[in-house]
TrEMBL record, chain A:
It comes from the Bacteria. This is Amino acid ABC transporter permease. The keyword ATP-binding does not apply. The chain crosses the membrane at residues 25-46, 90-117, 129-153, 189-208, 220-240, 267-290, 367-389. It comes from Candidatus Thermofonsia Clade 3 bacterium. GO terms for molecular function: transmembrane transporter activity.
From TrEMBL, chain B:
The keyword Transferase does not apply. One of its GO terms (molecular function) is transmembrane transporter activity. It is a multi-pass membrane protein. This is Amino acid ABC transporter permease. One of its GO terms (biological process) is amino acid transport. It comes from the Bacteria. InterPro entries: AA_ABC_transptr_permease_3TM (IPR010065), ArtM/GltK/GlnP/TcyL/YhdX-like (IPR043429), MetI-like (IPR000515), MetI-like_sf (IPR035906). CDD domains: TM_PBP2. One of its GO terms (cellular component) is ATP-binding cassette (ABC) transporter complex. PROSITE patterns: ABC_TM1 (PS50928). Its main location: membrane. The chain crosses the membrane at residues 36-57, 87-106, 113-129, 135-151, 163-183, 195-221, 233-257, 314-336, 342-360, 372-390. It holds the Pfam family BPD_transp_1.
Length: 398, 402
């Protein structure tokens, strides 16, 4: 060991280093090279695309969106006829996507929480059934599930005349018909009353909250606020000269239903498929979240004298939420993106409508750009919202 | 304290801990009827389950027309793949059985019961099958058994060969199924428009895994890079792809690839593969990034201290650890990829779902959606279940090794 000659001590760093040995230069050069390769590829591809489009005699541009669409859309939240523009057709598709996504998210969350709790149940049968449900959903592609529900269930239902009756609800191959409120002349006024009721309920809740913080004693908050809302809603309904909604029940006409609300089989199949598929994933998220709260927390809460409801409400749930929110967000995003599978069963969502427009006009590039842009914005909005909520429930570490 | 312990009789005489033993009634009471609401739940769900099971069984055994499956089994499995080349698909299965047998013997300790059940599967299927398929299934079973027997002779070399075998297996499958340029001969080219059924579904998955994995690793490294432009490019790619549905990416690949590359004819299957690879790479990149973030800084510093440059540090020190940490998550991603390949039916490919649609259009089998889609769901379910069971085993093993 001793006779190994020591390496000569490093010469002090020279001030005039060769510039291509400098780390900063290498990093800059590497980035410029990557950037120029990517930019070069992009330019070549775009030029190719422009050339191919020119050969096909298509000019890029969004002007065509103002032309009359000329095709019908099965269901729409806003007024739409086939003489409306492509832009309006796209809006119809977007609203349909949003409708099924929002409803799906709400229902999937509720069902998912039930499944997650059932998975933790001490009842063997409930526990195993929840497990079976989760495994079934997670091991089958959503597309297979959707097409199965649509073709093997909804389209196999009897015709409207022989519809299956479940109380006031009819099931037939024309969809699900149920009683629904028909707005009357006083409906717009009633809407203002509802808004005012929500506002007062919020004010009551804030006031009680402040009082609770001031006095340091727990006060009931949710019940008085809900009471305020309900009271104003009921009084408003009774005070108006004419009830704002008249309830109509579906009547069987020749081949279809008249009156009430008729949900198409496409919509129902898509909604049910998305809800049960996502609920299985949410169930696992909820289970993992609840299990992540250490037992000691529950025991400590019981030792402080909280009853089991308060333990859940004040100790377990807030802590479980921190673990649940980020994966729950990605499930919401998945549900929204998965709603594009509507095209497989003929529900006119954004993607299906844009597919029709591509077939009609051949404007593939523009439509794909629009659709991708819209989904991207919806995804970004959802994750911004959920990140904001996540920051609120996150553990504040000292 | 020490005096009391020495004065006690030998510890071996201590009573064993009480074991939980239930009578049937005791078990029922604890698990089904512990409280009044549990009893209520049990009764309600019990009745519902019995009623559902009864009607489902009655339908499956008396009303369902399962001949739609048996008559079209070949279509479901390989689509229009030429009969003269079917042996290649079987060869892939035989190789797979050999590799599974070897791996089970080498790494699957104390799982003999599972191995025997799994190994008996091809023979059981062979009893049900007939003709060519029966012979092939017997060969598959024997291959698995040979692999298992070989692995008894434990040697480090065999282990290395097996790992190598897995690495070259997937490219080999693609080569075997697609064949080589020559028009005739044993390995003639089979154009992709003849691929179909489960074969196409599996090939889309294999191609997706093989090509998106390196791309995903590169993207993950790029996202962790200290170079701002590289990082920005990777972040944009990953976030854009993760923000849009797979079906739009598939559509883009179908409609825009021919525009981007004029003069080159890319057939539909390859375009779908490109879409799946581009999509899956972004998700894999995020999974790999999770692994990269789990590596302590000290590992980087130690690699630097050893004088490794950036590439050697990543390849030899960081990536092996990062990838090992996320293996179960990667398997989960591959399962998702397998399920996602079903979307190619929307762009008109004849994968398992596409074949199902085509079969339902046959005049003999109109209106048999329930039978056909249940069968398709069963096929997907079996594959996914096997993969996830494997991933859980692997996770337990990796956790135990840690």
């Amino acid at each position: 060991m001793a006779n190994v000659p020591l390496p000569p001590p490093d010469s002090p760093p020279r001030m005039s280093r060769v510039f291509w040995r400098d780390d900063r230069f290498i990093q800059l050069a590497a980035q410029l090279i990557v950037l120029s390769i990517v930019a070069g590829l992009a330019i070549i591809l775009v030029q190719n695309m422009a050339a191919s489009l020119q050969r096909q005699g298509i000019a890029l541009g969004f002007g065509f969106l103002d032309n009359a669409a000329g095709f019908d859309i099965g269901e729409s939240l806003i007024r739409y006829t086939n003489s409306d523009t492509f832009a309006r057709a796209l809006l119809v598709g977007l609203l349909n996507t949003l409708l099924v996504s929002v409803l799906g998210i709400v229902l999937a969350t509720i069902l998912g929480i039930i499944v997650g709790i059932a998975r933790l149940s001490s009842n063997w049968l409930v526990n195993r059934l929840a497990w079976l449900f989760i495994e079934l959903m997670r091991n089958v592609p959503l597309l297979v599930l959707l097409i199965f529900i649509y073709t093997a269930f909804f389209l196999k239902l009897p015709r409207a005349r022989q519809a299956i009756r479940l109380g006031p609800i009819y099931l037939s191959n024309r969809g699900v018909a149920m009683p629904w409120g028909e707005p009357t002349e006083t409906w717009p006024i009633y809407l203002y009353i509802i808004i005012a009721a929500v506002g007062s309920a919020v004010l009551v809740a804030i006031g009680l909250r402040l009082w609770q913080e001031r006095s340091g004693r727990p006060k009931p908050i949710a019940l008085p606020a809900l009471g305020t809302f309900a009271a104003m809603a009921v009084v408003g309904w009774l005070v108006l000269p004419q009830p704002p909604l008249t309830i109509t029940t579906p009547q069987i006409a020749a081949f279809n239903f008249r009156g009430g609300l008729v949900l198409t089989p496409e919509f129902m199949a898509l909604l049910i498929g998305l809800v049960i598929y996502t609920a299985a994933f949410i169930g696992e998220v909820v289970r993992a979240g609840i299990q992540s709260v250490p037992r000691g927390q529950v025991e400590a809460a019981r030792a402080l004298g909280l009853n089991s409801r308060r333990t859940l409400q004040l100790v377990v749930f807030p802590q479980a939420l921190r673990v649940i929110i980020p994966p729950l967000t990605s499930q919401y995003l998945n549900l929204t993106k998965n709603s594009s599978l509507a095209v497989a069963i003929g529900y006119p969502d954004l993607f299906a409508v844009s597919g029709t427009i591509i077939n009609q006009t051949g404007r593939a590039v523009e439509m794909i750009a629009v659709v991708m842009g819209v989904y991207l914005s919806v995804s970004l909005l959802t994750s911004l919202l959920m990140n904001w909520y996540n920051r609120r429930v996150r553990l504040v570490e000292r | 304290m020490s005096t009391t312990t020495t004065s006690l009789p030998a510890r071996a005489e201590a009573l064993p801990p009480p074991t939980e033993r239930y009578t049937v009634l005791g078990w029922l009471h604890k698990n089904l009827f512990s409280t009044w609401y549990n009893a209520l739940l049990t009764v309600i769900f019990g009745v519902v389950v019995i009623l559902l099971l009864r009607s489902a069984l009655e339908w499956a055994l008396t009303q369902a027309r399962w001949e739609v499956i048996t008559a079209n089994l070949r279509l479901f499995m390989v689509g229009q793949y030429p009969a003269a080349a079917t042996w290649r698909a079987w060869a892939c299965v035989v190789l797979l059985a050999l590799l599974i047998g070897l791996s089970w013997g080498i790494w699957g300790r104390n799982q003999r019961a599972g191995a025997i059940t799994f190994g008996a599967l091809p023979f059981l299927l062979a009893i049900l099958a007939h003709g060519e398929a029966r012979v092939a299934l017997l060969i598959v079973g024997v291959a698995g058994a040979i692999g298992f027997a070989l692995s008894r002779w434990r040697s480090a070399q065999l282990q290395r060969i097996t790992i190598l075998g897995w690495v070259i297996y997937f490219p080999l499958v693609i080569l075997l199924i697609s064949g080589l340029g020559s028009a005739d001969g044993p390995l003639s080219l089979v154009t992709t428009n003849l691929w179909g059924g489960l074969l196409l579904t599996l090939l889309l998955t294999v191609v997706g895994i093989v090509f998106s994995f390196p791309l995903g690793v590169l993207l993950a490294l790029g996202r962790q890079s200290s170079l701002p432009i590289v990082r920005a490019l990777c972040v944009i790619y990953i976030e854009v792809i993760r923000g849009v549905p797979l079906i739009t990416v598939l559509f883009m690949a179908q409609l825009m690839l021919p525009l981007f590359l004029p003069g080159v004819t890319i057939d539909r299957v390859v375009r779908a593969m490109a879409g799946i690879v581009l999509f899956s790479a972004a998700y894999l990149a995020e999974n790999v990034r999770g692994g990269l973030q789990a590596i302590p800084r000290g590992q980087y510093e130690a690699a630097r201290a050893l004088g490794l440059n950036t590439w050697k540090m990543m390849l030899l020190i960081i990536l092996p650890q990062a990838l090992k940490a996320v293996i179960p998550i990667l398997v989960g991603q591959f399962i998702a990829l397998f399920k996602d390949t079903s979307l190619v039916v929307i762009v008109g490919l004849l994968d398992l779902m596409g074949i199902a649609k085509a079969v339902l259009a046959q005049p003999d089998f109109l209106g048999l959606q329930a039978e056909v889609y249940l069968f398709v769901a069963l096929v997907y379910g079996v594959f996914c279940y096997l993969m996830s069971a494997f991933s859980q085993r692997l996770e337990a093993r990796l956790n135990a090794a840690r």
